[in-house]
């Protein structure tokens, strides 16, 4: 079922990112808040490794049911057991569940072998993030908002339609260039985690971030469709160029360039799998590659504390456009996805 990996990635993202919008309600120290937000990233990598090692032991439907149940249970526990030791433990497990669910979703999407499904699956991040932001704005309470993650259990009938046996293969360690491809494509997403604070200190509401995420969602489907008409390497260079220039301008204070930065920057993720295939990334090891690259999300947002945002904007622009260096000969080597 083509929509299932998209739903799975969106649900995993929703449960994963929602606490980052609400952590201030817990009254924790800055260090404790940072740990609540960052510790799940380590769990993501663990989960993706577990999927690569043991994923074949269950069918996809069985795995989805198990992970949806885990997400719902962890959301309820997090909403009720409000203490730092409990939350840090739950958040680590949430990261593991995200690693499993995202790996499952990418496995199914890449086995379906449809660029729009693969791009849309990665678009689950933008969908989940947007829904989490809206929830936090409406339910200004840790307990109420976090408990909404338990509603994911209602998706069981939809997730259970159709099935796919997970092949037992030796996943292997993703190539460094494969991981780097995803890492560079995630730079805009890493940078956007700073956008709410940057807007606030410049006197703007962070609502514009939500609007830009909503506008970015269609790009996860439009760009993969375009990659059938335009060489994926050329398309990557164009999209990375737009994201790079608009990212520099946004962090230089031209606020409304946030919209093209978000649309092009997040949309870049949707064509990355086509490029990553050139470096040996496949359905089995894509989860490890993605969640290894995502560790940059812990480090990257710390950079502005060491410099002015005007200097940071140059780093954003340069590192976003750097993915262009990985697309040489893509036409010959990275077009194994069919439709």
Automatic annotation (TrEMBL):
Q: Which residues cross the membrane?
A: 7-28, 34-54, 66-84, 90-110, 117-135, 141-159, 179-198, 204-223, 230-251, 257-276, 288-306, 312-328
InterPro entries xrefs:
MFS_trans_sf (IPR036259)
Keywords of the record = Membrane, Transmembrane, Transmembrane helix
Is the keyword Membrane assigned to this protein?
A: yes
The protein here is known as Transporter
Q: Please report the organism this UniProt entry assigns to the protein.
A: Metallosphaera prunae
